[in-house]
Amino acid sequence: MTRFTEQELRYRRMLDELQAAAGVEVFYEERGNVEEGLGEAPDAFALFEEWHGIRLAPELRRGFLRFDGISCHWRLRRGESSLSGEFSLRHLSAAFFATGEHLIHEDLDPERRVLYSGFRIFDEHARTGAGTLAALGIPPAATGLLSPEIWYYDSSDGELKLDLDYAQYIDTLLVTRGTNGWQYLYADVDLTESGLAGVGDDLRTMLDVFPELFPDHDYADLRTRLQERL
């Protein structure tokens, strides 16, 4: 019988809560197998160093998941309010083979070519067709202990560096449940700009509704971040 880590159990509980929540329709869900051959986080991080020559910072181990895939695409309707979300996570070992090379095109400037080639994609949103993803940013010839930058990419707006690390992303995703655009709460943006006004509205709805639907979480930091961007 599979022995789940506490972080893996948290993700399974989050999917259970989405399935049970009033007004939430789950269009797609994946609870992939746990790749136990990866071992615990220290074993897997040692393999990263052996295979890729990269020593990941120990604090990132808190976010380590071994699912060969864990995903959800959902929509919430509550009165006149509507909200959608999606996430599709791959474990770190698989992410190191999911590069951003497909984002590179002939008109791209050299700086972005280097940036995108260093992307290691761990969260995608293919079912909404939004052209968004989240990736680790691995610099060329990375050496020493590394806590990679986290980048959010939108095919319409380009890339944004996020103010959180990998483990914090995995933790925050449990709270936001993949609400579309939640990553903007960790970016240097103004959500009153015309192109982002809809994202701001969705995040307001999330923070109005989620504390009632999912009360076992602290939303204070997310509220503060939203206010700072309005």
List keywords for this structure.
alpha+beta, 3-stranded antiparallel sheet
Notes on the protein architecture:
- By secondary structure, this protein is α+β, with helices and mostly antiparallel strands.
- It has one domain.
- It is built from 7 helices and 9 strands, in the order αβαβββααβββββααα.
- It has helices at 6-20, 41-52, 92-95, 110-117, 166-176, 197-213, 220-228, and strands at 24-31, 55-56, 70-78, 81-89, 119-124, 132-137, 145-146, 149-154, 158-162.
- The strands form 3 sheets. Strands 5-6-8-9 form a 4-stranded antiparallel β-sheet.
- Strand 5 and strand 6 (132-137) form a beta hairpin.
By secondary-structure content and strand pairing, the structural class works out as alpha+beta
The domain tally reads 1
Can you tell me the overall shape?
globular
Largest sheet: 4 strands, antiparallel
Work out the helix count.
7
Strand content: 15-25%
The level of helicity is: 25-40%
Termini gap: 48 Å
Main sheet strand line-up? 5-6-8-9
Order of helical and strand elements: HEHEEEHHEEEEEHHH
The overall strand count is 9
Average the pLDDT over all residues and give the rounded result. 90
Radius of gyration: 18 Å
- Spans of 5+ residues with little confidence (pLDDT < 50)? none
Strand-helix topology:
Elements: H1 6-20, E1 24-31, H2 41-52, E2 55-56, E3 70-78, E4 81-89, H3 92-95, H4 110-117, E5 119-124, E6 132-137, E7 145-146, E8 149-154, E9 158-162, H5 166-176, H6 197-213, H7 220-228
Parallel strand pairs: 2-7
Antiparallel strand pairs: 1-3, 3-4, 5-6, 6-8, 8-9
